[in-house]
Amino acid sequence: MQTEITIETSGQGLYEFTREAERFVTGAGVETGILTIFVRHTSCSMLIQENADPDVQRDLHEFFARIVPENMEWLRHTQEGPDDMPAHIKAAMTQVSLSIPVARSSMLLGTWQGIYLFEHRRAPHSRKVVLHISP
Amino acid sequence: MQTEITIETSGQGLYEFTREAERFVTGAGVETGILTIFVRHTSCSMLIQENADPDVQRDLHEFFARIVPENMEWLRHTQEGPDDMPAHIKAAMTQVSLSIPVARSSMLLGTWQGIYLFEHRRAPHSRKVVLHISP
Amino acid sequence: MQTEITIETSGQGLYEFTREAERFVTGAGVETGILTIFVRHTSCSMLIQENADPDVQRDLHEFFARIVPENMEWLRHTQEGPDDMPAHIKAAMTQVSLSIPVARSSMLLGTWQGIYLFEHRRAPHSRKVVLHISP
């Protein structure tokens, strides 16, 4: 009913884990319920977005890089590197948790919906994501 | 305990469906629980906002139109029209799912809270929204 | 399984209530489940962010103040004060609800994650937040 997965990231961008989530839901044996996805970090976030054209993911990444640039000279929290405070801001503008309905032991995602970890840091990170199914 | 509703949209803006959600909650016969609302699309989103003054909804729409304009020349994903990639970005900046507590078979919304589908595309669309009640 | 807490605010910024949430979870006696947090207002919001360096909270507040300034001359909803419509916009850009997994009767927060009410109004307010645990 609950598990934790690790997603290894190697720089900013979107990392899809729809298949890992689907595998957990199938294995949990819950017919109808809610899958909760929660990321245990404050400098990356969760996102459901189109998984057909990779350009969508690149454009999403670039939009957030442009609206939260690294060189905002008024930032105070800068000791962890120029990408750290922008990472917190981008995380605040997206999601820390997602709630996805399950029916017939499968997520009710739309045709083009993929589940992503949105990494906002430049350095590689091991990201912990909790998956939980409620009836 | 779970249903899917369709919301017909006719252009960008907010479409309230608080009453449809309340009707589902009343009919489900769950005294205390959580209503999960999930939209099965990536170019519209979910929003809880003030339902008293319609100007709030217009200003929200205009803010997002200004901060994610259609003419960003650096966008790559443009083959589905100038409003498509901005729609994905606006959806990423708002919500795909909402979790609303239920007590005495009624949603615990605040006095001014209404539930909206936020349509980000210009053309009419049929939008699928899943409603699910957990105890 | 469900309670409502009140958070008194005295101006814009982040108000942490991680300890109040943890106390509720401990008292509920649910081993494994989901804590849902829902704010019953449209001019403040919910946020999980770093609770180590207070500068992170100040920078978050300042970023949103800069990206949603009070003097946008095109706003229509202005009769409740210059900070009201920006408050609705900032609430729309962040969260109204959070879903946090619980294991061994404790929230599965990451090391640096704190739970905050993000107040977007200048005047003092009493904010109602519902906490609910599902199995």
Concise description?
Chain A is of the alpha+beta class. Chain A is 26% helix and 40% strand.
Task: Kindly describe this structure.
The structure is a homotrimer of 135-residue chains. Chain A is of the alpha+beta class and 135 residues long. Chain A has one domain (2-134): Jelly Rolls. Helix content of chain A is 26%, strand content 40%. The first copy, chain A, has a 5-stranded antiparallel beta sheet with strand order 1-8-3-5-6, with helices on one face. Chain B binds chain C through residues 32-34, 47-50, 53, 55-56, 58-60, 62-63, 66-67, 93-95, 98-101, 103, 108-110, 112-113, 134-135, and chain C through 1-2, 4, 34, 36, 38-43, 67-68, 72, 74-77, 85, 88-89, 91-93, 95-99, 128, 130, 132, 134-135.
Question: In whole angstroms, how far apart are the ends of chain A?
Answer: 9 Å
- SSE order of chain A, as H and E? EEHEEHHEEEE
Q: What fold name goes in the CATH topology slot of chain A?
A: Jelly Rolls
Total count of domains of chain A: 1
Profile the largest sheet of chain A: 5 strands, antiparallel
CATH class wording of chain A: Mainly Beta
Our count of helices of chain A gives 3
* Quaternary: homotrimer
Tell me how many strands of chain A there are. 8
Output the CATH homologous superfamily of chain A.
Answer: YjbQ-like
Rg estimate of chain A, integer Å: 16 Å
